[in-house]
Each structure stands twice: as structure tokens, then as C-alpha cells.
Amino acid sequence: MHPHIEDYALIGDLQTAALVGRDGSIDWLCLPRFDSAACFAALLGGKDNGHWRLAPAAAGARPTRSYRGDSLVLDTVWETPTGTVKVTDFMPQRDRAPDVVRVVEGVRGSVEMRGVLRLRFDYGRVVPWVRHSDDCRVAVAGPDSVWLSTPGESTTYGKDFSTRSDFTVSEGERVAFVLTWHPSHEPRPRPIDPFQTLEDGLRDWHDWAARCRYDGPHRDAVIRSLITLKALTYAPTGGIVAAPTTSLPEELGGVRNWDYRYCWLRDASLTLNSLISAGYLEEAGAWRDWLLRAVAGDPADLQIMYGLSGERRLPEAELPWLAGYGGSAPVRIGNAAVDQRQLDVYGEVLDSFHIARIAGLPSEPHAWNIQRALVDYLESNWREPDEGLWEIRGPRRHFVHSKVMAWVAADRAVRTLEAHPKAGGDIKRWRAMRDEVHREVCERGYDAERRTFTQSYGSAELDAATLLIPRLGFLPGDDPRVVGTVDAVRKELSHEGLVRRYSTEGSGSVDGLPGGEGTFLVCSFWLADALALTGRRTEAAALFERLLALRNDVGLLAEEYDPAAERLLGNYPQAFSHIGLVGTAFTLLDGAGAD
What is d(CA 135, CA 148) in angstroms, rounded to the nearest whole number? Predict the structure, then answer.
């Protein structure tokens, strides 16, 4: 049985990340990057696919855990009949090589500990050759090499194709294990001081969190979400991954299993907006620069996602040797949605540049030229159908949200020229485009009888993305069409008070996939925003409180939630969900709406 998704905590070094279970087992880690092959893949298979457990040897010990202050340093405290022990897990922001550090500290009495390290390269498939060198175990297979630095007090030995450590820790003692990866053709990196690195890391994270300018209710939840978004940043380039995992299912036992270890323009644009709102202009600037590099070229070639450094080819493949989380197969790497047409990303990109400009980020000389090219391309192509923001794998349609985002692209371009008339561009033509898009959406995307915007032209289906209409400025929150849409989505897409992104049932379903999925957490945050913007602030605050209660014990959210099973679903932790949390916190803080 796999642990529940919410049983995992996140550690990372701003280039990759690991998931640590309540049982003390690291079950997911890709080295050296988020999108590299995993060396611990038990999350998607079994323990034989790689993991590293460090916990009391005796069964029955009860763990409690928390992040240490505003950091990504995880403390797990185990109470046993003979004593109390604390295991601290973290990944220091690297100089060159990635390290995983696990510090065992005796708190009370004495506790017998056991470590089991089972390295399996290439997503749990390749068993390395392991040898002993001084105080280290060295594992090598093909391009990968891992060194495990062990304390002299521990007894380390090999058993059942794993490296084991048995030792006892008493009150006041500290024992550190350091796992370091490097390319097998290079010499071993210089070892780090785990204890000094721990202090340095805590100071860096606390200094970063102190820069947050959010000062409202649930500040701890907002900061934890911002730290999570920061942890999903690939520091060398500024790219932001949607999640550090692949193939965590949207339905247990189902086939909706996708690889999220890439940079979606949509997710990253919304992340940039959250960072700017919270005062993190440096991170926003790094992402803006990544965006400029990624989208440079022919606007017709704009992709919905890219690799961490802007790579364009992300071929999708299946890994048949992994059974999948909870039997949810296939396990996929890569993502075929990279080839989809999603016209809404043009609007998200233009909106992000607009927000960055208002926030005072220094403008790059060529940035406006790229934006002009994107708007000009969209002017000729916004009337085309697309796959929409939910990446349907069925026929293309005229999605209302995509058209609204085309309006956003034209609107932000017009507003930029109004503020900076010497920038250059055909403001008259862009205004005409903006007006035409607005008129068509209101005529063809609105069902007057049901008083709601629909998912696509001519469809009776609804879409939670239409909840964004007032926040984007397409229509004001008090417009009857907005109020009707909020009420309709709430009625038809609600599951025990939470929101599905669209219906996956019946002949009207658009995604072309079997099975269903859970409620989509960011959609519920969008509902809270829309309730506030339509004047129902008390209801918005109540929904926000409920969503906060869905976070796990260390403040993390996955992509979806199953209200019946009371479990998180989908890739984890999910940037989209934490973006929604930050956004709703600011919406409520700004006093939007009034009962």
C-alpha cells in the first residue's frame, strides 16, 4: 500500500526536490534536475524501485513533523518507549553537486535507529554497483554516481541489494548522513559540512521569508505557499515547474497520470503574479527573463510549456516497469500536450508582462517587440479553435476562456501603449480586436436562458475557468452575467462544496479520456475569488477557510482533492493550488466585495 499523497513533505534545493514520507522514507527524488530520471521511485512503484528510509528500528514509533520556522528544513520527531529522536531532512542550495542531508539527533533517552538506502537509477530500473571507500558507500551505474557519507559511529553494511545502517543515538548526540550525486565520469565533489550547511540554509530561508509583504490573516499559510513556489523554481534559469512529480493520479486506479516537471507558461505566469504581489521582484524578474528566452522566435511556434532551460521537445513515453501510484497506470514521462494549441497562453504572457511593468521591473529593450509580435499573431488567429487550458485530448473547440484570454492580450497591449505611447504599435487596430473579441464572447459564449457563460461556443457544458472573468477585468463583478455564471458553476460543478474544473460525465465531456477525477483545488480558490468580487465576501472567506483545512500537516496541497475519500490527488505539491491560495488571500485582504 502506498502512503497517501498528503503523507509526504517536500524538501529541495531550487534545482530538484524530494518527497519524504511520514514513515521517514524518501520515496521520490530526481537527480540532478526536476526532470531528470528518478533514483528513488518507490512513489510510483514499490520499495524495490528505490527509496531511503531512516527511522527508529522498533515498530510502532509515532512521528510528528513540521518545517522549522519559515524554511524548507523538515523536522520529524519520533516518540519511542526508550526515548525521543529527531530526524532533520533538507537539501542545501547547491554550489555544484546536489546533496540530501539527514541529521539524526537524540532528544531524550536513547533510540536504536535503522537506515535502508536502496538506490535505483533510471526511474527505479537500474541497480547500481556499490563499493566501500573510506567512510562512504559509492554507487555507480552508467552516467550516475552517488556517494553516501556515513558517520563513524554507525554500522553500515549491504543486504538485499541495499545499504543499511544500524546505530543508537542518545540524548544530545547528532549523527549526519549526506547523499551526494555527480556524473560518474567526474571526480567526487568536495564534501560539505552538514551542520554548518543546516545553519546556513535556515538563515537563508528565514531571510527570504521575512521579505514577504503580505500582512493579513493566515500569513503562515501564505508564506508556506510562497516557500513552496520558490522551491519549484529552477534557480539556474528562473523557470518554474508545475510540480516536482509525474503520474500521481487524478483518479486512483485511473489513466489520468501526467508529467508535471516542466514549465507551463500559464502556471509560471500566475506564479510570477503571486511573487510580485508578495514583494518578490527578484524572483519575478528571473522568471520574466526565462520567459523572454523561451518565447523568442516565431510567435506561431509559441508552446504552452517548455523544459527547465527552455527546451522545446518533451516527448511523452510510458514506463511499464512501474506499477503506478496505487496501481494507477500508465506511468508517463514527458508530456504530449506540448504540441497542443492553447490560445489562452498569449493572454497570460501579455498579462504577466503588464503586471511586471506596473510593479516596476526594469524593461528589457527587446521585450516589447516580442509582445507586439505575440499580439499581432493572435490578432490573426484568435478565431481558431484550440484545446483550451485544460489540455483536452479530444477535438478542438472554441473555448470561452481561451477567447477571454485573447481579449486580455489585446487589452494589456492597449493599456501599455496608452501609458507609453512612444513604445510603438497599432493601438487603433488592437482596440478593434479587443472590442470584437468581447462582443463575440458575449454573443456566442453566453447562454442567456441559463444566465451563464458556457465552456465553449454552442455547448451546454460549464467550465470553472469562466470564474476568472471578473478577476481578469473582462466584466465587472456586479454584472448579472458574472453573478449568473458564478451561481451556475457553483450549482453544476460543485462536489460537496468544492469545484470540479468541468464535467467528465456523459456525452458532453470534452477531454476524450475514460474515468473521472477529483475536485480541482485552484478552481475552488477561483470560486472564492469570484464570490468576493460579486459581493459575497462572507461566503468567500468561509470557502477559503475550508480550503486551508485541506492542506496536510506541513501546509502542502496537491492538484486535486477527493471529498468522498478525503484524500489529495494529482501531482504534488502543485504550483497551481498554492498560487490559488496566495491569490485568494490577497483578494480577501484587499477587501474585494461586501456583503
Answer: 8
pLDDT tens readout for residues 434-482: 999 999 999 999 999 999 999 999 999 999 999 999 999 999 999 999 9
What are the beta bridge partners of residue 211?
A: none
Please say if the pLDDT value at position 593 is more than 70.
no
Is the predicted pLDDT of residue 594 greater than 60, yes or no?
Answer: no
The grid coordinates listed for 201 are 540554509
Give the three-class secondary structure for 189.
Answer: coil
pTM equals 0.96
Q: What is the C-alpha to C-alpha distance for residues 559 and 576, in angstroms, rounded to an integer?
A: 7
CA dihedral 355, 357, 358, 359 (to 10 degrees): 80
CB atoms under 10 Å from CB of 48, counted, come to 15
Give percent of the chain with pLDDT exceeding 90: 81
**Closest by CA position to 83, among listed 100, 59, 108:** 108
**CA–CA dist 118, 124 (Å, integer):** 10
Task: Tell me the per-residue pLDDT of 357-387, one tens digit each, with 9 for 90 and over.
Answer: 898 888 777 889 999 999 999 999 999 999 9
**C-alpha dihedral over 475, 480, 481, 482, to 10 degrees?**
60
Which residues, other chains included, contact 301 with Cβ-Cβ below 8 Å and sequence gap of 6+? none
Q: Are 222 and 296 in contact (CB under 8 A)?
A: no
